[in-house]
Amino acid sequence: MPDRMTETMTDETARWTALTEAEDKALTLFDAIEAAGIIAPGRSERQVDDDIAALALEKFGIERHWHQCNVRAGANTVTTFHDKPPLRVIEAEDTVYVDLGPVFEAWEADVGRTYAVGERAEKHALVSALDTVFEAVRAEATPDMTGAALYALACDTADAHGYHFGGAIAGHVVAEYPHAVWPGDKDHQRIGPANPTRLSDPDPFGRPRHWILEIHLLEPGRTWGGFYERLLRGVGRV
After folding, report:
1. How many Å apart are CA 84 and CA 235, to the nearest integer?
2. In the predicted structure, residue 5 carries a pLDDT above the cut 80
3. Could you tell me if residue 84 is inside a domain?
């Protein structure tokens, strides 16, 4: 019989595979959103949100979302998930970010992208910088880093690229649905200044935690910005 360590590693390999497969499916949903032309000037955030939900159900059979779809345009791109800004209509030169949280079978996905719907170079530059900053932060993240330290790294990296980091956190745990009801200190499930625990510390059930990394950049005047998120691959795993 396999020993306990082998069983644990096998279980965690299966969990990680399920999470990455869920993310891949969520990214395919983004591809379908783009192909359908859902994000366009003249459309309201609510219209985009409703059309994404309908597309997710019709094309992918997605009935559950572990968090609501979050669509922010123009001035609302400086706000974060828990803010409730007035609804906006997408204007011709806006940035627009979309944050998706679909559930595939038992597994949560969490992906975010930003679009520059016009031609302004500075808007497209920020959209490109989101991926650059994400990869730079991910490259420096280590399992022994605390959530607070990784948040500080995200802020410093944004600053080094000429932007302000706009998020109150820089990510969170992702897992089997619904991880949001797990016991314990919620700050310890977030990449933020209030998390002194290491990324590799176990979850409330003694298992490795798996992380989403969020990058929220604001232009220097902090009047508009963009958002990007994906799995923080390889950090905190067995």
Report:
1. 32
2. no
3. yes
